[in-house]
Each structure stands twice: as structure tokens, then as C-alpha cells.
Amino acid sequence: MPSFLSCVAPLCRAFRPLAIFNHKTHRQNPLFAALFSSSSRPRSTVSAERSREVIKTKQRRLSVIHDPYLNRGTGFSADERERLCLRGLVPPREQQLEQQIKRVMATYYRQRSNLDKFQYLSLLMDRNTVLFYRILNDYFPELAPIVYTPTVGEACQKFHAIYRRTRGMYFSMDDRNHFRTMVYNWPRPHVDVIVVTDGSRVLALGDLGCNSMNIPIGKLALYVSAAGLNPLRVLPVVLDVGTDNDELRENSLYLGLPKKRLKGQAYLELIDEWISAIRQRWPDVLIQFEDFSSDVANTLLERHRYASAPVFNDDIQSTGCVAVATILSSLRARGKPISAITNETIVCTGAGSAGLGVCHAIVDAMVDAGSSRDEAYSRFYVLDKDGLLGEGATNRVHESAHKFIRSDLEDGMKLEDVVRKVQPSILLGLSGQGGLFTEQIIRDMAKFQKQPVILPMSNPSDASECTASDTFRWTNGRAIFASGSPFNNVTLGDGQLCHSNQANNVYSFPGLGLAVTALRISCVTDSMFLAAAKRIAQLLPDREVQNGLLFPPVKDLRSVSAEVAAAVGMVAVEEGLVREQIDDKLRTDAKAMHAFMHSQMWQPKYSHLVAEQAV
Ligand SMILES: O=C([O-])CC(=O)C(=O)O
Ligand SMILES: [Mg+2]
Q1: Whose CA is nearest to atom 3 of ligand 1?
Q2: pTM for the structure as a whole
Q3: Annotated catalytic, 148?
Q4: What is the ipTM of this complex?
């Protein structure tokens, strides 16, 4: 039987010229809309109801305890102990999650370094899924910097040295022509979200090859924790296409293929083969490209975003979404209407895929607020490692940077000179260069602006272009500050409390994933990210925003994700991209959509284990 992809892909390709860059084309072209909105497997109509979960299992004895999704440690009920033949295999006293949390957290606090904490949590994740996610939810602000940026960066650098147990899937260049059978080695029938990396640019740490596996694992942990995706239905993937990191390649403990990176056409064909294998088994799955180096990130996104089912690039699109949300929220903080985004003057350091993704997303937001596209581009000054993109830059930068090239200033102009010359309202850091925003630059920003907006978005913390405490000291607390990796709030000598915000893509991708999964959205569009950004920027009351808080606290991420999912869902309905059968109320009522998204979240609770008769 022909696969979904083999039927749809040629059609999609035929329509690509219509679809590229303008998602609205989908909606306006009835054939395209029909193609994407027809359901590949009909299901019953979805409403806000959801039945209580019971897990049936044929497993007994130690195989129950050794399965992290079934394991409850000391938390098996008397009934489960009896029916699943666990009597005597666990200590006699039945405990609740509360006691288990207490024991785990006490052990966690005894770990000496952040890397030890990372490993301890990984072991917990391998052993007891519900307990891991309950703890991650309850202690999110404290644990997120361990399972995610910044510690996840160190855990990737040392992956080969600390490796204990496999999680996720590896597809290597030596496996070419086998991907279509390999996908069936994954033991679970349903997958909702895949985060995939080729490890070519891990955070700002460069090429870490196969060591990058902790990035997809970490991002998917956030999907589960922050948006209630089902942990049984997520799949972390590394595409091992070699590494140009000589040190790693020559290390005998390195776990990837000790080969140089595959490049060019052969590389693109490998990715095509992988996507087609994935689509063959899981036609609807959301694929998130993560930490691909700038030379391939855009190419891959453009090649696959409309040619197959839902795909997006986190570093380009979610970072763009969060940057727009940050700017809109900062306008509120500065007492301006959000339409005043059209008047911002923006200096962006970093012309890689993330930097340009952010700039393009801001251009879209300016156009949405009434600017012409050309006017919007004219508000930007973009720099790469060789300085300002002036007329000489055409040959050295990706095509998507061309619109940002300035003809009015000298090519290669230094950051400090650009800041003095153009007196920006916003300074964006996507350069991956820790400390790039010097005291002089930040002080100059504070000379030109009453409330300069300083956004060092590079990760992990060492790569941040400036720290929160320096920024607030150098601006006497007047700056509006948001960074990619977390910084503590700062109290200045005079007692003034300055809020350090975390403008991280965790505010956007989990909610997007929830919407795509719950509604079986067929294509991820830029307008979904814009709607999400506008929603995020409106979540806090004026009083808090005026105090310099730009986002709700990360402990409230589940509720942020429901808002993002609802905003994305409403756009998907409008654009005709929802494949799930949904009732009219969901189509028309934003509140019902929001409640629906909440109802779809997986909760880290021990659901009742029922012994199924083994045959
Ligand atoms: O992981 C993060 O915190 C943000 C991100 O995607 C990156 O920096 O590549
Ligand atoms: Mg990333």
C-alpha cells in the first residue's frame, strides 16, 4: 500500500511554488487547503472531555518495576502489588508521591555539582517517568536550568564521558538506506513530537556531533513538563552525520562515528531519507529541527516546511517568537502601545540562522502593526563577526540576510560605533559571544534611551553577551533586560530590585507542540508564531510589566503553554490547517479552545495499573 508521504509529497512539491514563504496561499488555494485539511485517519469528534487514564499491562514482576512508565517505586498500591505479582519485590510500606518527592529532593540536594544533579535527574527519568515529571513540574524554576540551558550544554560537552544508558534514536550516515526499517525499531506505536539535531551547532558551543543527544532529550522534557505532551509519545533523535570537532572525533570514548561531517547534496539526501522514513511510520508527527548550524538550518526548513507534514526550526522560529514577545512586552513596560514596535531601532549582533530568524520575525510583527516591509527592514542594523552588514557583505552572508544589508553605513563598522551612530532602542544578542556587550556599549545605550532594551539571547550563560548584574549596574537599573539563559534578579546598592527576564524559546515551542498534537495541525506557519508572541506579551497585568517583568514566571509555564496553544489553534482553524474533527464551539470560541488545550495535557500522576491477561 502506498504510504501517506508517497501520495502527498509529490502533490505538495507540485504546489510548492504557491506555498513557499506565504502560508496564506494554503488558505486561499482550495486544493491545497483540501489536501492539508483532509484527515488521513478519521477519528471521533474531539470535545473538551477526556476520560480518566487507566494503564493496562501484561507485564508482571520485575519487568513492571524496570519499565519507567509503569514503575511507581514504593508507590504501588496494595491492589497493584497483588495483581502484578509485586509482593515481596518492593519494600512493604506503600508511599505516596509526596514522600517519594521528599526523598528524591533530599538526594538531589546532596549532589555536589550541577552536572551531578543533571545525572541524578537523568537516572530518575530512566527509572520513574511520573515521579520525574512531577518533580520537574513542582520544582521547575530550580530544575529547568539543570535539565536545560545552561547545564545541558556541559552535559553535551561531556556526553561521551558520562554516558550510562540509551534514550531516543540515532540515525547515522552508515545506516543510510536502512532508515525506513529502522524507524520500526522504536518500541512505541505513537509519536507526537520528534526533536532532531545533527549536533552541528549545539547552543553556542559549536559542533558536538553525536554528543548532542541531551539537547533533544532536554527539549522534549520541557514539552512534557511545560505543556503536558505525553512522555510515551515523544522521540529524541540524533542524526549522526559525523563531526568536524577534531578533539571529539579523536577521543576513543566518543560515541558517534569518528568521521568528518557529511556535506552538500549527500547530506540533504540523508535528511530527505530520514524525513520520509519518519513520515512513513508517523505521518502526523511534529518534527522540530534543533541546533542545526546556520549554513544548513534555513535550507532544511525551506525544503521541508511545506513539502511534508508539520516541521519547524526552534532556533529560527521559536526564538523569533520569543524575541517578538519580549519586544511587545517591553513596549508595555515603557508605557507605549504595542503598535509602536514600528518605531523601534534595532541593532542585532549575530547573522546566523537564529539572529536572522529573530530579525525576520520582528519584521513580520512590524508589518502586522502597520509598517511596510521595506520600512520595517530599514529599522535594522545587523552585524556578524566582521561587523555591520554593509554593501560588501552580500558575498559573505546567507541570502536571507540580504534585506538587512545597509547602504548608508560602512560595511564592517564595529558594534560600538554602530550603537553610537544609530542610538538604537533595542540591542539584540544572538552572536554566541559571551561579554560582547561591553560596559561602554551598555552605558552608551543608557545615554540615548531612558529605558534601553538589552536582550542577550545567546546560550548557555557563558555565551550571554552581557550579564544581568552588569547591565543593571551600568544603566542604574533603567535597562529592560531579558536573556536566553536564566540570570537571577539584581538588587542595586540603593535597594532597587531589577527584574532579569528569561526570553527563552521554552515560552513558545511547548504550547505550539500541544496545539499541533491536539488538533493534528498539518503545517506550522509564521502567523502561528506571531499570534503566540502577541498572546505571551499580554499575559501579565500592566502593574507587573511596568515593574520590568516581561513574562509570567517559569513556574506558570503550563498556563502560558495553554495560552500559546490556544492562540496557535485559532490561527490553524482560520488557515484551514486543522485535521482533527473538532466541534463548532472550538472553531469559534477562543475560551473553549483554551479550556480544550488544558484538558489535553498529560498529568504526572500515578494512573491505576490494571493487570491484563497475558496470552
Ligand atoms: O536551548 C535554548 O535555551 C535555546 C536554544 O534553542 C538555543 O540556544 O539553541
Ligand atoms: Mg537551540
Answers
A1: 149
A2: 0.91
A3: yes
A4: 0.96
